[in-house]
Amino acid sequence: MTADARYAIIDVSNLAYARWHTIPPQFWRDDPGTLFKALHQSCNKLQDDLCVDTLIFCFDGGYDYRKQIDPAYKQPRKEARLQAPEDEKELRQILYDQMAAFREIHLPTIGANNIFWAKGFEADDLIASCVKHLPNARKVYIVSNDEDLYQMIEGSRVVVYRPASKTVVNEEDFRRKHSEMPPCLYASAKAWAGCSSDNVVGLTGIGMAKAAKFLMGKGKPEFRKRFTDHVEVYNKNIQLTKLPAPGTPECRPVPQVDALDWAMMGRVFDSVAQRTPKGIKK
Questions:
Q1: Mean pLDDT within 77-90
Q2: Which domain holds residue 120?
Q3: What residues contact 257, with CB distance under 8 A and at least 6 apart?
Q4: Which residue, 81, 101, 117, 129, is the most exposed by fewest CB within 10 angstroms?
């Protein structure tokens, strides 16, 4: 089945945070099943919409490796969470609790065979490991709005499905947008350009377009010298942008032979004894 199977690797944390920004706060406080219901609906629908045989679920477990390389990595996000009002902190903890419950209780209950989480590693790293261990799969969808995962695109076999816009990005789409640069060079381009959302400082005045131009061997000597004179920027940042991070546990997906019992998940959730565990932190 592996060679012919179609897989969807779901960045569950990415989907959860998307819901965090769209669902009104009172729902998180009043209904312990807010995230469960949203993810239940999204994942079940994805399996039908993408016509896949197997769903793979990946969760964030932190970013210890990258913090060791650069203590400033994603630091503004952490500071913003620490400075947030107490009611926002409470809601965020509810989000963490519900994500943990989805991973630890709900997915195992319905017979999910592919649930990946590792302390200190981002979901992106686990997704990249999954892709590397599916070399013969007929089709692999990476379900995430995170553009970092573009580096895993391979032709039309491994593609990124963006749930926010319900669009698929394949290699042809990527090359068209990035000056014919192949997806495998995305991490290198980002290492030169930097990333404001992750607080990765790139080469001054260089964005993704200019980085792609350099990596494709284009530009006048003085343009290219700006890069070669500051190779230390690249050497540091590539450790932050390349997937998977060194030390990422091997994630070896297996075909989902028995169909996931989504109805069972709903019945189990309705049992008070199986509701969200408290005090589980990210």
A1: 88
A2: 6-178+244-267
A3: 1, 113
A4: 81
